[in-house]
Amino acid sequence: MPIVTIQITREGSDPAREAATAEEKAALIRGASQLLLDVLGKPLDATFVVIEEVPMENWGVGGLPVAEYRRRRRIEPE
Hints:
The protein is α+β, with helices and mostly antiparallel strands. Helices cover 37% and strands 23% of the residues. It has helices spanning 22-40, 66-75, and strands at 3-9, 48-54, 60-61, 64-65.
């Protein structure tokens, strides 16, 4: 019984949107389940997919909270 955990940030391309839609989550579940069927032969009815939405304040990049990392990227030249 495979269990797949997908972690996504609560940010989207639309600044007013904070979470994935039900349709997007359903597509992730279908896609992950189909991948396990295609690659490993795991049956769809035995595959569990968990989607965790991570708030921005709970993740980081480059050794910094993401808000600080983004702030610095806007200020410092690349």
